[in-house]
Here is the input.
Amino acid sequence: MKFGVAIFPTDYAIPMTELAPAAEQFGFESLWVAEHSHIPASRSTPPPSGGELRKQYWHTLDPFVALTVAALSTRTLRIATGICLVIERDPIHTAKEVASLDHVSGGRFIFGVGGGWNREEMADHGTDFSSRWKLLRERVEAMKAIWTQEVAEYHGELVDFGPMWAWPKPVQQPHPPIILGGSGPKILQRVVRYADGWMPNRGEVVERIPELQRLAREAGRGPIPVTFYPKPGAEEIERLAKAGVDRCIYYVSPDGRERGLRDLEKLGGLIRPYLSA
Here is the structure.
């Protein structure tokens, strides 16, 4: 079992220059950051977790800037988006940012992506909520072409570009692992089609792992790793490990340095018994 920490990298949170090396010292394998370009002030879409939307959603740093700082502050910690809203991003620019971050980190980047939930936010980027999953797939496929082809081109229904040169290529070959977030009814088929791992954040997880691996076998693929955001607890770690979850990620507070360090220390104590197992 691998363990990661996640944070909304707000402008009032513990600095990445302090959080990242502390996470590495506590034995965490990876550090994940959330992304929101903005939150429309007039919004009808409720947050997936219910309740009022916290201000951390509109105070996040750009994930690639935050993770570059984290990468340069550490030696072995993997740095990851959890998730990158590719549906709100130009795929050519994003492919450049991913490859550049993988380059400066020495091949430590994990590319977590997802379809998003905020209709108004994505609409401001010109994205139709009903076709966001198709757009996500085509943009991921287009970025794969840029990363792996010397002269890259892609021709889809929503993404289309002719032959181009684009460097750097990622350090990791053929590209950084793509971890697809989501818990909807079609998510497993999407993971098998174009991702390297599944990252649900709610709903039935353990119960769906056998189906995921069956679909992978039927597609001629090997086992697909599963990353999950559980509630902290030793019993939950044991249950998820037995079910085949490969990585557990725990959030630390974005509300200041002291709260972030306190959360990290507590979580470090939780995972310590499992680091030498």
Summary: The beta strands are 2-7, 30-33, 78-84, 109-113, 152-155, 160-164, 178-181, 197-199, 227-228, 247-251. Residues 232 and 266 are 10 Å apart (CA to CA).
